[in-house]
Amino acid sequence: xxxxxxxxxxxxxxxxxxxxxxxxxxxDNPADQLVDVLNxxxxxxKVSTLYDNAxxxxxxxxxxxxxxxxxxxxxxxxxxxxxxxxxxQTFAPNCDVQxxxxxxxxxxxxxxxxxxxxxxEAFSEILMKNQKSIDIVTDKNHTEVGAAVSGSDGGSPYFWxxxxxxxxxxxxxxFEGGEPKISRPGCFSGANDQCSGTYRSLTLHTWSxxxxxxxxxxxxxxx
Length: 223
Known about the structure:
alpha+beta
């Protein structure tokens, strides 16, 4: 009986370990993963990879927030985009990016949908809409990229944004204090930051399984 109980406990602990590993994986920064997918696509097209600029990426997150959760304003006949003046007046100050270091935006990709998907799926199914999108990704004039993902107040709808620039590494989109200014909800690439806000429901779902397993252990051992 004791051996059977020990086997059951070992199995439960392995299950908890596996679930914990899933939790770690889903809290990785999806914006960084999106840049990885994009650069892999450029390599496949025999184009050089782009520098992941955290300042440009933070501005991409501010670009998303300018839509105020209005998914209907992204694409289609009702498509809108923030005024160019917002980059200097709002986006850069909100990121602590020096306005004097702003460089030309040479391309933009923006997508939105109600369901969260993996970065690789977001790239292929949401951002790569047509030949124009492919041309933007593979444009040889780009030197830098910044990606961001955010849900409205941490939930649906989910916005994905990629901004491209022809700036010079380490001298464009420079932070006032030299460090990225992290803001939530949302994630942006290049900040060496893990982001779990987008995955709140997944995290809660995972821990509900762990609690259920612990309860089962309690019944099995007579606790």
